[in-house]
Each structure stands twice: as structure tokens, then as C-alpha cells.
Amino acid sequence: MDNTEFRDWAHRLADYMADYYEGIEEYQVKSTVKPGSVFSQLPSLPPAESEDMEKIMSDFGKIIMPGITHWQSPNFFAYFPANSSYPSILAEMLTASLGAQCMVWDTSPAAAELEEMVIHWLKSMTGLPTNWHGVIQDTASTSTLAALLCAREKRTDYAVNKNGFSGNERLRVYCSSEAHSSIEKAVKIAGIGQHNLVKVATDRMFRLNTKLLNKAIVADIESGFIPLCVVAALGTTGCTSVDPLSEIAAICEEFGIWLHVDAAYAGSALLLPEYRWMIEGIEKADSFVFNPHKWMFTNFDCSAYFVKDKEVLLQTFEILPEYLKTVNRGTVNDYRDWGIQLGRRFRALKLWFVIRSFGVKQLQDKIREHIRLAKWLEQEINSNPQFEMMAPVPLSLVCFRYIPNHKSNNVDLNHINEKLLGKLNATGKIFLTHTKLNGQYTLRMSIAGTLTAEHHVAKAWGLITETAMSIENDCV
């Protein structure tokens, strides 16, 4: 492909992308292809000769698009969002065109300094401590792993990095039973051991029970364990419960434990001053993460990771082979030393585009609107005697279940709601997911899409009630 053909296809693809968003509601939200159907349409060997872009794009439409779940659809209410937006897409196009590998300042000074500034902007926008430091990671999973590695190294005086585990560390990590699975994965990868993750029970609002946390820490100390880290969740995955950060911070301060705050989804709500109550006590924490790629309309992947003491971060990760030495080292931020990866994408550019294009006020307006829509849906559910709210709605996730008049047994209700979810998703009109709260099958409706408006939520609720009524007669 030469420059002339590239120019032609770049224009054509720009039109394709604009058309896609213009007609995105026409697609079934969740792909309905069968396992192996895409794979079976692909040739087993790569082409020996160049293939025409017309043919490639034709196959993209016939083979790939049917297997795509449309995360940017305004009718996507599953999981948490992985939001995009027009300015973010434009920035990604530029990022791909530049093809910069931004591992150190010298490999693209603008990338390093823009990252430093947008991190500074995020602190200002969210109310995080101004003296903290930050870096853009790929995901919250990576950020949480970085936090545990830093906690491990600080606690062992960097001995594990130097000598490996002695076998006598007996380190413990604590989180609530509702916390994200990435914590368990990070504990395994960090060598702490899955059995050394203590999952503390929650209170009636599904928040980490601080009395039980304190009790678990004391018992571990008496048994010869070393409490290493507590992970507090602001917005748990199942139901967006908000752990009592101030109480947890006081416990961590008392016992000298690293406190990491996982606000992957909910952190964007900190753009709203009225939601800063979630981070009361944050000054006592050691690290914090939230994902602009979830609820701040920035393309996946973009995770903002903050630390109180950047020297711990640097001592945990930095390594200096001869080929990476530069004359500017020590006077600039070489972000390869701030995490696991050496190679780094220019993620700051899309965040810069989004913040400037939306402006803080419009970002706040969109987040507030999503929260308002969730409260509206909560009211609708509460006013319908055949549905039941399953958890509070602090943000924009609504957890509920269907309860037919003649059913009260949880086993039956679990089956009914699982069937309801399957029927809803099979329509292709909306996409929801589920969790289990206290063993009860719960439907989750996450209202946070860039394009989602009130009429989408109202239409989804109408489909939910209509579908529920249609299965009532054949409920087991």
C-alpha cells in the first residue's frame, strides 16, 4: 500500500466509522455467533501474496462484524463500560499514525511531559492529594499488581526483588468478599500466595466490615503473619458498594499496612464534588487507581495510577541496562520505571483530547446524568411489586431481580432470573450481566455509556418488564 492508497482508505474508513456510530443502534448489542464460527471462516494459512483492501474490508464485514459485541451501543448495560468518544477515537488515530514507543523521555519528550500534565489535571479534577504522583497504566489489574509489588518491596526492604522469597515472609493481603478478582490474581503473580489473601465479609450494604478486618489483622499477627496490604474498593464489581475508606485508613495507619484504593469504575464520579465523600481519608492511603477508559469516555486502555511515595515505585521497578541510559536521566520522568512494562503506548494523548474536547463541566454533566438515570430506574423497580432491588445505588449501577407473585424460594428465583437474563440478551436489543449477592441471582444494569440517554433506559426497562411477564407462566 502506497501513500495514495492509504489516503483513500483513510478517508473511506473515517466515513465507515462515522456511519457505524450513526447506525450503531441497528446492531444486535451482543454477538450471537456460535463458538468456532469465526475461526472456521478464516483460512488456516496466511496469504503468500498481497491481498486487496476491498477484499479485506469485505471479509471484515462478513466474518468479523457478526462476532463483535457492540460495547459502544447505547443499549449496552453489561459489566462496566469500556467507553469511547469521538475525540478519543481521533486521538487514537493520531497515536497509531505516530507509532511512538514512549518508554523514556528521550523516545518522545512530548509523550512523557503530556502524561505528567494530564495526571496533574486528574488530581485537580478528582480531589486527590496534590503532592501525590501518577502514571498511566493499561488496566486497573496492572495498577493493583504494581501496588502489591510496591507494598511487598517496602515491607521486605526490597529483599524479595534482590534475593527472591526466603519462604519465611508469611505476608497477608486483605480485601472484602465483594472486591475484584484482579486482587486475587495479583496476589498469585506477586508470589504472596492465593491462600494469603484474606477475604473479609461485608456489612448489609456489601461494604468491607471494618470490625472484622481489624479482628482478622490482629489474629494474623498473633499467628505470626505479617499484614502487608489492604485493598479498599470504591465501587465493587458486583454492586458498586463503597468501602468505608476513612475507617480502613485508620486501621492501616495503626498497624503500618499499605493501603491501596481500587476505584476503577467509581473514580470518575470524583469529578463531582458531591461524591468526594468516597475518598475521605485518602491522605492516609498509599496508592489509588481509577480507569478513565470506564466512565470518562476515553478509549480502552487507560488506567490512572497514583502513589503517595514515588520512590517506592521507582525502587520496585527501575532497572538500568546500558542501552537505556540517557543524559537526561534523573531530571525527567522515564515512565518505564513506573510500572511493569518497558514498552509504553502514547495513552496520554487520548486523555488530553477528551478532557479538552469535553471540558470538565460537560464530563460532570454526563456522569451526573447517568447517576440520575440509575436513580430513576431504582424508583421504577421499587414501584413495581414484581421486582426487587438487591443493593443500594450509590452510582449508576442498578442491581435487581424479578419476583413473580407466587414464588419465594431462592432456588426457584435464581432459576427464573437466570432465564430472564438469557431471554433479554437473546433479543439483541439490550445486553445485561448478572452477579450473586448473598447467593441470590441478581441482574446488573450498568448505565454509563457515552451515547446512553433517558429513552434508552426507559425502553430497556419496558423490555425487561415485558419479557418478565412472558416467562411467568412457565416458571419452574
CATH class of the largest domain: Alpha Beta
Class from secondary-structure proportions: alpha/beta
User: SSE order, as H and E?
Assistant: HHHHHEHHEHEHEHEEHEHHEEHEEH
Main sheet properties: 7 strands, mixed
User: What is the CATH topology classification name of the largest domain?
Assistant: Aspartate Aminotransferase, domain 2
Tally of separate helices: 15
Shape-level CATH architecture of the largest domain: 3-Layer(aba) Sandwich
Distance between the termini: 60 Å
**How many domains, in number, for the residues?**
2
Structure description:
- This protein has helices at 3-22, 37-40, 53-64, 86-98, 109-126, 140-155, 159-163, 181-189, 210-222, 245-255, 292-295, 310-317, 348-382, 410-426, 454-471; strands spanning 133-137, 171-176, 197-200, 226-233, 258-262, 287-290, 303-307, 387-389, 397-402, 433-437, 440-446.
- The chain folds into two domains: 1-44 and 61-83 and 363-476, Aspartate Aminotransferase, domain 1 (Alpha-Beta Complex); 100-345, Type I PLP-dependent aspartate aminotransferase-like (Major domain) (Aspartate Aminotransferase, domain 2, 3-Layer(aba) Sandwich).
- Strand 10 and strand 11 form a beta hairpin.
- The radius of gyration is 24 Å and the shape is globular.
- Helix 4 (86-98) packs antiparallel against helix 13 and helix 5 (109-126) runs parallel beside helix 13 (348-382).
- The strands form two sheets. Strands 1-7-6-5-4-2-3 form a seven-stranded mixed β-sheet, with helices on both faces. Strands 8-9-11-10 form a four-stranded antiparallel β-sheet.
- The chain has 15 helices and eleven strands.
- It is α/β, with parallel strands linked by helices and 476 residues long.
